[in-house]
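Work Package 3 (structural annotation) set out to generate three-dimensional models for the target panel prioritized at the project kickoff. During this period the team completed the workflow that converts sequence records into discrete structure tokens, so that structures can be stored uniformly alongside our sequence database. As a representative example, we reproduce one entry of 267 residues exactly as it appears in the project archive.
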Amino acid sequence: MLHITMIGCGAIGLGVLELLEHDPQLRIDHVIVSPGSEAAVRQRLARFKHPPEVLGELPAKARPDLLLECAGHRALEQHVLPALERGIACLIVSVGALSQVGLVERLEAAAERGNTRIELLPGAIGGIDALSAAKVGGLDSVSYTGRKPALAWRNTPGEQACDLERISEATVIFQGSAREAARLYPKNANVAATLSLAGLGLDRTQVTLIADPNSDENVHQFEARGAFGGFELNLRGKPLAANPKTSALTVYSVIRALGNHAHGISI
């Protein structure tokens, strides 16, 4: 059995716990949450048959097989970096955080010192294997367009780009580099950051973000061209009911990654 500690217990974390509840090869033993929220999270988890222990930080002597980050960008500084130094392998969902200058290098150095590794999860997007393979032969261009229901962009700079409550047609709320997209829309632009890290980098990947009042899906489109040829991907994902900013496929991506660590065959 693979023993896992999970950072965060929001919509993604709860979705992961629900899907793993009856998996005999994977167990989330601990959930790390923000100090002060432990009691509320324990109450939320009481419905599970074997709820994980809720903690404010990873105990000094704890050595889970994997640390799974589902908490957001600050968790990388607070929990992932120290865990890597201690030799604990980490899976990261909040890939957009890696747009912060120098953070990739700090994580990589911590993993090297701890003789362990970091795995960046593709989350809501597919085709990452093909894109990273194409990078070997040489990429010329990668462009990404993210389209979400208008109200999924609430509490983001998209509110300054247009009136999200009143627009009647699809409206571009951002155009620029993946680095800038991930900085301005950290909870919405993990896909752009993931594509960048697999391909041409944060500064050479072009991003367009769209608020669409007529859509009930999160639509991800990207196009890559290079020495290998070219390909386009169009993925229409249903948002999580508990959080429209996040595609349900993100939760399934986590389950797939954990299964690849626990099961005899990975794909």
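The radius of gyration is 19 Å.
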